[in-house]
Amino acid sequence: MSSEAPEGWRLTKLGEIAGLSGGTTPSKAKDAYWANGSVPWATPSDITSLPLGQTRIAGTETHITELALKECSLRLNAPGTVLMTSRATIGHAAINDVPMTTNQGFLTLTCSEDSDPDFLCQWLNANRSALTAAAGGSTFKELSRGTAKLLPILLPPLDEQRRIAEVLRSVDEAIEAQDKVCRQLSAAFTGALEACFSAAEWPSYHLGDLCQSIQVGIVVKPAAYYVESGGVPALRSLNVLENRLALDDLVYISEAGHQANQKSSLRAGDVVTRRTGEPGKTAMIPSGFEAGLNCIDIIFSRPKDCLRSAYLSFFMNSKAAKRQVAGLQGGLAQQHLNVGEMKKLMLPLPDLRVQDQTVEVLDDMWASLESSRHSLLKLSALRANLAADLLSGRVRVPA
To answer: Containing H/E element for 186?
Structure first.
């Protein structure tokens, strides 16, 4: 929140450009407040669950009755009010398109004549971290009405506010559209994955019978093994993502530690699986790691010639495998997968020709999904930088 006003702008306070109010929760014990309710009643999840890039809300999951509205002193916010979450999750803002009430997890802001709701909504979302920092509370963070009123805001003239909001809204619309593409591609990929590993005509085998070995990496981790640089890279659970590896946060172990743990030295084509923290999530070691790569507390499988590594990796990330993992764990809060359980997994196995065809289809779909996700990340980064420039006045939007 900058305190230097660009030419034509003024430094003011949030409470001077908008009226701030709150909400409440009618008694759950009184059925007449809830049964067959028709008045939209927003909770923070209604805002935080909006699609990426969407800043308008036209409906809520829960409704209250007219009686609750009358007897519980609930404010019915007119369309065009800015609804901002103010408890625990702070600074998520949207504008209501229909009359709407809220629970106590909101501050609602009714703009004055010289402030634009779309601009204010953009400003709140862009300053989410500062709003959270201003919040108080020990059990959970809450931004009070009194504190919010005093927050400084740089306010351009009304016409410029609207131009800024329009530019950012256009990027939001692009983000929303790209996010929709990502969700559609993700659903298509998940559906294809499910179909590929639910084919009844393929015989199923225990994974332990289809692999040369299934082992766990270094479990005991003496501090002496770790070095800052110059050692052998080692994968941990956080490096194993669905169908890919995150290689920007590797740890390194000494050459001596690597030599002492040659059994957990990985090679291209090995399939690595998380034991803890989303157990079962799997990726394949690509080519290029012949020089040495170790692993720490993750399971790695080395398929026999009858099983393609990529086929196994896709299977492990399918719902079919996840259901088996959950079943082997007995439904308990056992947040780890052990080697014995891994070996018991039943894998539907077609011949190599069909495996190759399956992998080719899934590879293409996954590549399209990853490309779409990358485009979404670039758009989101562009939007963040643009918002910082426009809302501070560093970059002006001409009339």
So the answer is: helix 158-196
Closest CA to 168 of 128, 124, 226, 229: 124
Tokens of 123: 């400003």
Strands (DSSP E) contained in 224-286 are: 226-227, 232-235, 240-241, 244-245, 251-253, 271-274, 282-284
Find the length of the chain.
399
Q: For residue 191, what are the contacts with CB-CB under 8 A and spacing of at least 6?
A: none
Q: Scan for tokens 């393609």, then name that residue.
A: 308
Confidence label for 332 from pLDDT (cuts 50, 70 and 90): very low
Mode of pairing for the β-strands spanning 101-102 and 204-206: unpaired
CA 101-127-178 angle, to 5 degrees, is: 80
Q: Could you identify the residue written with the tokens 């049964």?
A: 35
Global pTM value? 0.83
Between the alpha carbon of residue 386 and those of residues 168, 190, 395, the distances in Å are 8, 34, 9
Cβ–Cβ < 8 Å for 281, 256: no
Rounded to 5 degrees, φ, ψ at 81 are: -80, 145
157, 159, 162, 168 alpha-carbon torsion, rounded to 10°: -80
120/111 Cα distance (integer angstroms): 8
First and final CA of the chain: distance in angstroms?
A: 25
Contact 277, 334 (CB under 8 A): no
Strand-strand pairing, 89-96 and 82-87: antiparallel
Tens digit of pLDDT for each residue in 112-169? 999 999 999 999 999 999 999 999 876 788 999 999 999 999 999 999 999 999 999 9
Parallel, antiparallel, or unpaired: how do β-strands 101-102 and 106-111 relate? unpaired
- pLDDT, one tens digit per residue, over 76-116 is 999 999 999 999 899 999 999 999 999 999 999 999 999 99
Spatial distance between the Cα atoms of 253 and 259, rounded to a whole number of angstroms: 10
Q: What are residue 301's DSSP bridge partners? A: 214, 271
